[in-house]
Amino acid sequence: MTVKISNKLNRKESDLIYDFKKNKILLLMLAPVVVFFFINSYLPMVGIYYAFTKFDFNGGLFGSPFVGFDNFKFLFQSGTILKITVNTVLYNLAFIVIGNALQVFVAILLSEMSSRIFAKVSQSIMFLPYFVSYVIVGVLVYNLFNYESGFVNTMLQNFNMDPIDAYSTPGLWKFVLVALYIWKMLGYGTVIYLAAILGIGSEYYEAAKIDGANIFQQIRSITIPLLVPTFIMLFLFSLGSIMRGQFDLFYQVIGSNGLLFDATDIIDTFVFRSLKMNFDIGMGTAAGLYQSVFGFIIIITVNWLIKRNHEEYALF
Amino acid sequence: MKKGMTGFISALSAVVLFTGALTGCGSSADKAADSSAAPTTSVTAATSTAAASQNGIDTSKEVELQFYMLGNAPRDLEIIQTKVNELARKDLNCTVKFNYTTWSDTNTKYNLLLSSGQPIDLMFTADWMNYNQYAKKGAFKPLDEVVPKAAPDLWKWIPENYWNGCKVEGKIYTIPATWKEYVPGVIVYREDLRKKYGTPEIKDITSLEAYLEAIKKNEPNMIPTEELVADWGIGGPGFTAWGPIFEQTHTSNFGATVPYGLYNDYKNPSQLIDYWGSEEFVNDMKTLRRWQEKGFWSKSALSTKEYPADEFENGKIACVMASNPGKYATTLSKVRTNHPDWEVGYLSAPEVAGYVEPVHPIHNGFAVPKSSENPERAVAFYSKMVLDKTYNYLTEYGIEGKNYKITEDGHYEMIGDTTTNGFAREAMNGWAWRNPEIQLFDKSFDAVLDIFKKYEAGNGIVIGENLFGGFVEDYAPYQAERTALYQVQSQYLVPLMGGFVADVDKGAATFREKAKGAGLEKIQAEFTKQWQAYCKSIGK
Amino acid sequence: MKVREAKSTILFNILAYIIVGFITLLCLLPFWLIVSGSFTSNQSIILDGYRLFPQEFSLDAYKAIFKIPKGVIDAYSVTIFVTVAGTLSGLLLISMGGYVLQRKDFRSRNKFSFFVYFTTLFQGGLIPWYILLTNFLHLRDKIAVLILPSIMSPFLIILMKNFIKMSVPDEIIESAKIDGANDFRIYYSIVLNLSLPGLATIGLFLGLHYWNDWFMSMLFIDTPSKYSLQFFLYNLLNGAEFLRNLSQGAGVYDSVAIPTETTKLAMAVVAVGPIIFLYPFIQKYFVKGLTIGAVKG
């Protein structure tokens, strides 16, 4: 209460000056974070200037010739930028939305299950895919879908069905890639929601039980609403990087199979292929900047919209 | 509960203590690192009396040279380095630190090492590591004056045409290797199976097809071959092993192909012919389609995760493409150990085309990066590594009697195996400082030397001169088009080469149309202009 | 009343066991294939593919990795040290930061949150960062470079902030302030206790990050004995990949044997093994009711 009043009284004063006066200890506690990001993240940002130069070793960062937006040209030259941008955004949305929904679902199941041991063991096992590197995932997927000796086709043939030529069927991979990502991150995300559920005071549930709410009603009226802020936070956080793809997933599973690119090419794989033979600092930075600016616009807009309606959910 | 809490809190206070310790040790380590990271600061007053200047260069200050090579460091590097430093301190009043980039993300690391400007005195260069482009962008120091001054022996020993081959815009930026080697593609197959099924001797594409067909028919558990996905780079012929073989039967241009779907004839190199636009191209793609339909390789070949050589050595496939004779020799020796009943045959690309080129001088070399503080000492030291037998053998083969011995017929022989021996032959990846006059070969390498002898003996094979290696392409005028073309190639040309496009005529037309859209014509025109200017400058 | 509640609970549990059991199986199966594959002979993997049980049992893959045990042991020690040190110190800094950023009376919290979040949007790229760490901070080839640059991340800070916001009611902080506790004391004696599941989660994520990291070793470590475990394994694998993908024309043939299919699988097992056994110990912080108990006790 006192806080709210003093907040109103001092509105004119700048927030930072206020905190310097009143919250010295808090500032000090935050100092390592500020110093860390200033050095590790903000200082190197001078490198964004590379996007506008044609790098040479004699000039270095600021001495190389300025070329304006030339380095961005390669993104648009092949005419696929729109398609891969759309691919990137849609894949990421699918990853975020489906992934989080499933994580919430599993976290609720695990937290309410009667057998603790079963819940613990299965939670540990769900973490296993997180450790399987995408290189190995790629190998496993190949052994699953490979036309001649893959597991899927062997099964189909056992049931006298026609084999699928998966590696020339682009549409299939949309589902495979999303499923793989969700599979891999399920254990990781579930932990977040599980921790969030544990943060909910048990007095809520006790009160609900006294009111006669059954387990489904408790989940619907207590657990889910209280997980919404966490979900929104994670969603907002991911939005900023919606233009950055899961490079390893796409690269290891699809590789250089041009037959599938229409459905599976994202900005990161596109840029990687463009630059891998002759790495060009300018072009690489330009592509990164394109992704950053796009993500920046999206997150600022969405955060602003959310802040207008539910300030407590906003990211900043 | 209480117990858990105190446990947690004591853990946290341990962190506080620990963080202190970390920063503490960080700062003391910093001092130590300063000396190793920056040779300039480590310059100590010369205590040794060997400061007498040698070769007319100033060696009065002791310096530590930073030497960078690709790949993984051998296990016993430390021992070899100490030995080398004993010699170098006496001869040149310097020591050297051998650094290795590892094979992980090598291109990224190579680029970072050069771009960051950290002091490096000797850096490996190669055509396949974009020597020309780095030199053009100013990553290395010109050596035209340094080498004659600091290493007059080396300057004389390396033939003039090698020096000339390393010139980029008129200046020498790297010290070339002089061992004459050939690195064409080699088709490796099972000679025992060929004999068993009585197909004709393999000497061209037609006889190869007959062989693959026999395998398909008679060996149900084998796949005739694996469509090897290998990257040929921007503008290169594609990603697949077979596509380029076809192209090469027309181009007679093996070691390094003229890019962007162009090819030339060695008799008239300045004339460039458009392969992608030709009838031959469509016919070749039709052949590949036919092969794919016959089941010569997996329907999933474009995404394969298999290692073809591994599959060949284990008897899953009957034909594999080795990217150079050395790899063929490796496969051969593995088969001889594990399957002595097999017989391995090979057909190298020059035998089909009747033409071969040795590698270009820039194929392996060492440059002095711009950041070097001791270019003269670096060059003098490198000269020792090449010309001085003690240095050379130490860094190529290790310690005699411990790592290797020389057999009676003059072959290198490793002592023990890779588990017990921490320094195998050429473990330092010393491809660049091989000295052909004193070089030692392992017995298994005779397979490679036999191939070389075959070329040099004639047999209808013309040995040409590698022109492409010396050409410095300036792709600035068509950089955006060039990357766009690469995208088009990976999306449309690769499936065509894998034989996965049902209607080849239509597929080829789509590819051409897309390539045109990406700016192929502009690239070809500009490239041809530069190429012809280059040919003129070297008098071809 | 009682009967209905029990019924719904039973129904819930049946559904939960079926669904969780199915998902668990999906997560276990691929890993099982990897383990089984790593104990199979290489020839059998190439000719017969992956099987639930080894067709031809063999320990060759593990022998290949442990051929020179020193490398693996060094790598394990580095990774264990880095993981423990990094996680503990990171946890301290992140939880302090998260706590400050969620304090309602800390007025610039949104400004600082944005300051932190902004770094996920814009990055300077690899080269300037590399130059900073090697040429200015002189961290090349130091163990510290494996720890410091990954000690916190925007994601973990904002996640921590959210956890604290959820599990520490504002009233508790306010009443502690009225009692005269200073801000650090509130953090130290109240906030840390109340957000144990959150701390365990963040600690777990930090630990996983350190455990799985190969990138920092790849960029900054020159001395093989300082490689982290993942890089040690990754490098074995990558060498082969690089040599395989080199186009024709590069006269490179490494003297080092290319690892086989099964070695790759064994590497995955070697890398996961120890940490998966640690997981149950972390799980004890994920017990429902823990929070409330801490407040009352």
From TrEMBL, chain A:
A Pfam family this chain is assigned to: BPD_transp_1
Membrane topology classification: Multi-pass membrane protein
Domain ABC transmembrane type-1, chain residue ranges per copy: 85-302
KW Transport (keyword) present: yes
GO BP, one annotated term: transmembrane transport
GO cellular component: plasma membrane
PROSITE patterns: ABC_TM1
InterPro entries for this protein: ABC_transporter_permease, MetI-like, MetI-like_sf
Keywords: Cell membrane, Membrane, Transmembrane, Transmembrane helix, Transport
Superkingdom of source: Bacteria
SUPFAM superfamilies: MetI-like (SSF161098)
TM stretches of this protein: 25-52, 89-113, 125-145, 175-201, 222-243, 284-306
Localisation: Cell membrane
Membership in a protein family: Belongs to the binding-protein-dependent transport system permease family.
Name this protein carries in UniProt: ABC-type polysaccharide transport system, permease component
Organism: Ruminiclostridium cellobioparum subsp. termitidis CT1112
Automatic annotation (TrEMBL), chain B:
UniProt keyword terms in alphabetical order: Sugar transport, Transport
Alphabetical list of Pfam families matching this protein: DUF3502, SBP_bac_1
PROSITE patterns per UniProt: PROKAR_LIPOPROTEIN
Record-linked SUPFAM superfamilies: Periplasmic binding protein-like II
InterPro entries assigned to the protein according to its UniProt record, in alphabetical order: Bact_solute-bd_prot1, DUF3502, SBP
Keyword Transport assigned: yes
Span of domain DUF3502: 469-536
PANTHER family associated with the record: ABC TRANSPORTER SOLUTE BINDING PROTEIN-SUGAR TRANSPORT (PTHR43649:SF17), ARABINOSE-BINDING PROTEIN-RELATED (PTHR43649)
Protein name, entry field: ABC-type sugar transport system, periplasmic component
Species in which this protein is naturally found: Ruminiclostridium cellobioparum subsp. termitidis CT1112
TrEMBL record, chain C:
Gene3D superfamilies assigned: MetI-like (1.10.3720.10)
Matching Pfam families: BPD_transp_1
Domain ABC transmembrane type-1: 76-271
Record-linked InterPro entries: MetI-like, MetI-like_sf
GO CC term, one of those recorded: plasma membrane
Topology in the lipid bilayer: Multi-pass membrane protein
GO BP term (any one): transmembrane transport
UniProt keyword annotations, A-Z: Cell membrane, Membrane, Sugar transport, Transmembrane, Transmembrane helix, Transport
Keyword flag Transport: yes
Chief place where the protein resides: membrane
Transmembrane segments: 12-35, 75-100, 112-131, 143-164, 185-211, 265-282
Compartments in which it is found: Cell membrane
Assigned protein family: Belongs to the binding-protein-dependent transport system permease family.
Name of the protein in its database record: ABC-type sugar transport system, permease component
Protein species of origin: Ruminiclostridium cellobioparum subsp. termitidis CT1112
